[in-house]
Amino acid sequence: MIVEIGHYALVLALALSVIQTVLPFWGARARDASLMGIGPVAAVGVFVCVAIAFGALTWAYVTSDFTVRNVVENSHSLKPLLFRITGLWGNHEGSMLLWVLVVALFGALLAVARNMAPGVLRADALAVQGLISLAFLTFLVSVSNPFARVAAPPAEGQDLNPILQDIGLAIHPPLLYVGYVGFSLVFAFAAAALIGGRIDAIWARAVRPWCLIAWVFLTLGIAMGSYWAYYELGWGGFWFWDPVENASFMPWLSGTALLHSILVMEKRDALKVWTILLAIMTFSLSLLGAFLVRSGVLTSVHTFATDPGRGLFILAILVFFIGGGFALFAWRAPLLKTGGLFAPISREGALVVNNLLLATACATVFIGTLYPLALEGLTGDKISVGPPFYDATFVPLAMALLLLIPFGQALAWKRGDLADAVSRLLFVMGVSIVVCLAIVFIQRGGPVLAVIGLWLGIFVFVGGANEILSRSWKRGVPLSVILRRAAGLPRSAWGSAVAHAGVGVCVIGLAAQAWSIETLATVRPGQPAIVGPYEVVLTDSFSRQVANYREDVARFHVLRGGAVIRTVDASKRFFPARNTSTTEAGISTIGFGQVYVAPGDAGEHGLGVRLYWKPWVLLIWIGAIIAAIGGALSFSDRRLRVGAPTRGRRKDMAATNVPAIATVAAQ
Amino acid sequence: MLVAAVVGLGVLVAGAGVSHALQPGEVLSDSKLEQRARGISLGLRCLVCQNQSIDDSDAQVAQDLRRVVRQRLVAGDSDAEVRAYIVDRYGDFVLLKPPFNARTLLLWLGPVIVLLCGGALVLWGRRRARAGTPALSAAEQAELQKLLDDRERRI
């Protein structure tokens, strides 16, 4: 019964999304406020219905209802409650339901948020968001129904892929989806601006909070996915330039560019057409990511062709929105008034270079990800594009970008003074060089590229701190005044400083991996193996039965200078339901570094282990979290909450020219 | 996120616990040779995995390839000869860094082309915007000068 209610709610959501798409759009054209007023109601309705459907499927998972095919294929009654719930999105149908839930959530948030955008713009944006819900709901209801029953229910489910039975599955996909889908709303705003034929600083101000939310969640989602892969896949890598990772990284790069270009638009009324284009591209890349992961095209172009149903449907959605978005852009963008001429040496000039580098970096990842697919499709030749390609192409671009960050922060809007910026950065440069050299001295040297990377990370970090310092510190001013001044700075200034410092911390962590140490050893109990400054000793091994798996545990002591400082378990788990095993690395955190124990085969000479000492490895993810906190700080800025000035209803209908907060271009 | 790949594709990244990434038993006693073997291994793709090098992979194929690499090195091959030996048998697909040739021209030059085109576009946009901004007329110029002079006098 509950499952049927869920299925019914899904169909109802589909019907409501038609209303959400058609009526506000029509109302905006006919200048009919009551028609436009239906949009928010429908959007909330769609969300409530999808939430009911999601709740129903969750119920089926929690109660292990093995009459539902999706539950049979992905659950097991012995699984712990958390993994029974997360198993919902550990598969195709369920994850698409989560996707639609987030699309509908953003539609509802836009409907509820007041004063964020003027009437017609909001109505059109709601309509476009409704169209996105409509497309994916149609997909779910027609070819990917999560509520399908089985004729002969089995007594037990087939369990979830053991690798996914992890806390990571509870955190990573929801964060990532909120990020991906958050950009759908930015896309909806871009399409609405194109339909309305007007774009100004008010648009920028209405869109920026949504863009920030999406960016914050995407950042966290990618970081958590990376950490999950790091500890779960068991060979200590955290980024593999895998197509699936790239699929989430591309919208992040493009979204980061968008975040900066919106800023230029808000402050200087420039880069309008480019910002719209970026908004369309960012969501297109999100869709591309969904397509790449969900269609099976990645394994091989040929598997995609043999099982076309779902893949083709998602491809159709992809083509419709990307093609439609770009067609709308080509048709309407020439109507948008461009404006804003600016000097190359200025904050906005630096942001243009930032956008150029980010867009090129994004294009590089795009080419690297899709080139093998295209080549195989066209000629049948198979090539691999792996980490060495990105080391040669992406890394130089990223380094140039990092070098630019503190300069961009030090330059003033309109007409910056390079000499002044450099003199303000002398302190930052000095501090970062001294700290970097000190670290390298303590480590007794290191690879040149890693030293440069380390310096860049410190440079960006100190640059972030300097942004606050330079605006609050003055010689001779008492500390209390300085602190008060710093606290009084706008949240967006803090947000920018913290986010950039976070990037710096992340880069420091990445660079520090050049000093990581690896030891391969075959160990017997009591016999130490040395990894970096530590000794690792196998002390005990035993088996135990846990929930739905059996576990062989190897217990190690981590010693420093003969004293035991940590105990760490590495294990192999066997899942009888799927007849598969997983390896759980033992990880022990010491400061910001980690000792990583990857168990291998047990032989007659003992247990084979791969041991790593990874100095400062946690900084990679801590940096990402700090950057996300920066984004959240910026989001909480009062300027964004006050929003655009509201107009009287009558005036609103007439769509009069609102004096944009546009500033007169320099010169 | 490779983990997520498993969700999407149903491909098991980690094998079924039969063999593992480079094991102590496989290591050559000559540490110089071993270092070269590691370097080569990191650039070779495990054929049945997603973007994993044979050094990291648990798959049987990867273990076999690691063995081949070490055998060739012990036999006295140079690094390039080892790579050529493996590419001869498995094709360019096995190289994680694709070779630069006619088929990969766009792959390698693509980023450079995008950067140059983007840069040109920025310069062109600037020139156009400047051309579109009318210069001040003589009267406006005089007015501006007067304002500036006024200000200076007040200061």
Automatic annotation (TrEMBL), chain A:
**Where is it localised?**
Cell inner membrane
Membrane-spanning parts: 6-26, 38-62, 96-113, 125-144, 177-197, 209-229, 249-266, 273-292, 312-331, 352-374, 394-413, 425-442, 448-469, 493-515, 616-635
Q: Which InterPro entries match?
A: CcmF_C, Cyt_c_assembly, Cyt_c_biogenesis, Cyt_c_biogenesis_CcmF
Q: Which UniProt keywords apply?
A: Cell inner membrane, Cell membrane, Cytochrome c-type biogenesis, Lyase, Membrane, Transmembrane, Transmembrane helix
What's this protein's family per the entry? Answer: Belongs to the CcmF/CycK/Ccl1/NrfE/CcsA family.
Its membrane topology:
Multi-pass membrane protein
Function per UniProt: Required for the biogenesis of c-type cytochromes. Possible subunit of a heme lyase.
Q: Which residues form the Cytochrome c assembly protein domain?
A: 89-295
Domain annotation Cytochrome c-type biogenesis protein CcmF C-terminal: ranges: 315-638
Statement: the UniProt record of this protein carries the keyword DNA-binding: no
Q: What is its main location?
A: membrane
Which Pfam families did the record assign?
CcmF_C, Cytochrom_C_asm
Q: GO MF terms on file?
A: lyase activity
User: Quick check: keyword Cell membrane in the entry?
Assistant: yes
Q: Please identify the protein, giving its name as recorded.
A: Heme lyase CcmF/NrfE family subunit
